[in-house]
Amino acid sequence: MAEFKLIVCIEPFGNRVIPLRGRRLSVGRGNDQDICIPDRKISSAHALLEPIEGGYRLRDLGSTNGTYVNNNLVNGMAQLRGGDEIRFGNTRVLFTDLDPDQIEWPEPDEGTAPVHGAAGRLGGGAPGTTIPDPFIED
Fold it and tell me: Strand 55-60 to strand 35-36: parallel, antiparallel, or no bridges (unpaired)?
């Protein structure tokens, strides 16, 4: 399986890299989520990333503002492909197996914007583990 990662666009600080490592990870604003993104448009328990053969799938957990993949609303589940742009609330996230220095972000569509000043965290399966700032890449 390719070494997929999420690259979270956090302006003005740059991008945060979250290696997926074949793990099932929850995404949301709540402190009990594996990936906590402090964006008010994100639900406490927003979505779930699940490894599948050859990649990942994304499941929206009934979030208030929806989850989008390549600007398409996810109804239930969506299979992710390298290069897909995910939007949780106002936060843009790239699903990729490329190195961050190989990525060029497209301009956001009208009505979307990267998170400003959000730190976030990633738990290795246990909520509460903080990602050190400015960003990690391991």
Answer: unpaired
CA distance 82 to 97: 6
Which of 9, 15, 78, 75 has its CA nearest to residue 49? 78
**Bridge partners of 91?**
88
User: pTM score, two decimals?
Assistant: 0.75
| Cα 2 to Cα 96, 106, 125, 127, distances in angstroms | 9, 23, 20, 25
* Mean pLDDT value across the chain: 79
Is 79:54 a contact under the CB 8 Å cutoff?
no
Name the residue type at position 98: L
CA distance 1 to 67: 25
Residues 6+ apart with CB under 8 A from 111: none
Task: Return the closest-CA partner of residue 63 out of 100, 21, 91.
Answer: 91
